[in-house]
Amino acid sequence: MVLMIADTGCANLASVRFAFARLGVEAKISADPDVLKTADRLVLPGVGAAGAGMAALQAKGLDEMLQGYARPLLGICLGMQLLFKMSTENNVRCLGLLGGTVEALPDTAGPVPHMGWNTLSLRTSDPLLRDVADNSYVYFVHSYGVQPDENTLASTQYGMEFAAMVRRDNIYGCQFHPERSGTPGAQILQNFLDVNP
Amino acid sequence: MLARRIIPCLDVMNGMVVKGVQFAGHEVVGEAVDLARRYRDEGADELVFYDITASPQGRRVDAGWVSQVAKELDIPFTVAGGIASIEDAQMILAAGADKVSINSPALANPDLINALVGRFGSQCVVVGIDSYWDGEDWQVKAMTGDPDKTITTPWKTRDWICDVQRRGAGEIVLNCMNEDGRRAGYDIKQLRVMRALCKVPLIASGGAGCAQDFVDVFAKANVDGALAASVFHKAIISIPALKDVLRDHKIEVRP
Questions:
Q1: pTM for the complete prediction?
Q2: Which superfamily does A3-194 belong to?
Q3: Do residue B98 and residue A182 have CB atoms under 8 angstroms apart?
Q4: How many domains, chain B?
Q5: Nearest 5°: phi and psi at B33?
Q6: Cβ burial, residue B233 (10 Å; 0-12/13-18/19+)
Q7: Residue B255, in any domain of the structure
Q8: Which ipTM score applies to this complex?
Q9: CATH number for the domain including B111?
Q10: Using a CB-CB distance cutoff of 8 angstroms, which residues of chain A are in contact with residue B42?
Q11: Torsion angle in degrees (nearest 10) through CA of A13, A15, A17, A22
Q12: pLDDT digits (tens, 9 = 90+) for A24-56
């Protein structure tokens, strides 16, 4: 199985790559859509702002490739947000692989960014949640989120209830950083490797 | 619910973890990668590596050990020390660090904060502040890694905290220098004042001596995380025992 990480020019590729290496899988990193489209599993990481993230995808021709990708795709953090229809951060149209709009977290909850370990409330059963306990702590760093809907596997509370894990068909997303989320995070990455294509 | 973070800080000098009293007289306490592994296993929520030699010597952090640590760790970590440009930050983040923390270079060039935020996003950019009570107010110091080069800046801590947030800093680590290394408790008074000014996550640093000090800093100063070094390095406090105490006081922590 060939695992690839899309190099969008953002900086956290190494930690994602190392996390899969700890699971015994060496990921290939590429920014070339013709290379990435051959992957059996594809990870779209991301940090920073939605506008810059989408611009980077478009500049590399990755937006169309991702929209046509039919095998399991995992968006992490900003990478998950870019899977949705649009983001109010920079008011940018995103990939539209999932319905819904990414909105700013309300500042009533506490400090923003929402940074640190928070709990997952599991909403359904899914292969991505195999051996992940309800109320597991995972590591978040973000200022935007999307309201839960029928594609939400797990949600988290911070000022608002937001989607922490999503899935529709072959499209998966984690708002938190599984690569930095200890044992539950490693389990989720392993589950992503194990899902049926 | 968002858990409060326990953050061991590893002051690194030439790849070795050191600890000094009020930043003077450093003693070696272990290798960076070994301590990183140990704290991960004990349940630390995050680690900060602070290369205290970097800024005063005009030398930058070494991406080699950053990368080694990144391979070991499945919890987030921050690297501080000598990051003075987008290129420096890029190198450290590409080596696998989750955040960069800037201190003296931000004081020398505050626009560096804006530049880093513009390139990497607020969530990657931590500003460390060394704050000293001079008898009248809290004042920001720079270049504290080397006592001979330490200077008092014109900034009052409360003004600098507001300024760095306007520039987009995603988190602030406030090191209360008067308490640092004394193990007599965090500077609750100062942290309460700064918490009220700080809309981004605030991490307390300096003064932890026992588990009750962590209870107090979370309960009384409402900080998001508490950073400490010597009490962890010298095994005066074990992280699992500390978390038990915090849980007994109804303070949310990760198991």
A1: 0.93
A2: Class I glutamine amidotransferase (GATase) domain (3.40.50.880)
A3: no
A4: 1
A5: -65, -40
A6: buried
A7: no
A8: 0.91
A9: 3.20.20.70
A10: none
A11: 180
A12: 999 999 999 999 999 999 999 987 788 888 999
